[in-house]
Amino acid sequence: MSAMEPPFTDGLDEIAQEFLIESYENLDELDRALVALEREPGSRDLLASVFRTIHTIKGTSGFLAFNRLETVTHVGENVLSRLRDGQLELTPAIAGCLLQMVDVVRALLASIERTGVEDAIDTTAVEAALAACLLPPAAPVPTPSSNDPQAIGAVAEVIEELAVPEAVSTIVEPTQAQPASGEPEVHAESVPMLETMPAVEVTPVAEDEGTGKRSAADSTIRVDVGLLDQLMRMVGELVLTRNQVVQYVGSLQHADLHRASQRLNLIATELQEGVMKTRMQPIEQVWAKLPRIVRDLGTQCGKQVRLVMEGRETELDRTLLEAVKDPLTHLVRNAIDHGLESPAARVAAGKPAEGTLALRAYHEGGQVVVEVTDDGAGINGDKVRAKALERGIVTVDQLAKMTQREIHDLIFRPGFSTADAVTNVSGRGVGMDVVRTNIEKIGGAVDVTSELGSGTTVRVRIPLTLAIIPALVVGQAEARYAIPQANLLELVRLEGEAMTTGIEYVAGAPVYRLRGKLLPLVFLADQLKLEQTGEHEALNIVVLAADGTHFGLVVEEISDTQEIVVRPLSRQIKHVDVFAGATITGDGKVALILDVSGIARRAITHAGGATAAVTRDRQQRDEDARAGSTAQRLLVCEVGDERRLALPMEDVARLEEFAVSAIEHAGDSKVIQYRGDLLRLVDVGKVLGFAAPKHDSLDMFSVVVHRHLDEAPVGLVVDRILDVVEEEFTCSDVGSRIGLRGSAVLQTRVTDIVDIPALVLAAAGGHHG
Question: What CATH number does the domain located at 469-616 have?
Answer without folding.
Answer: 2.40.50.180
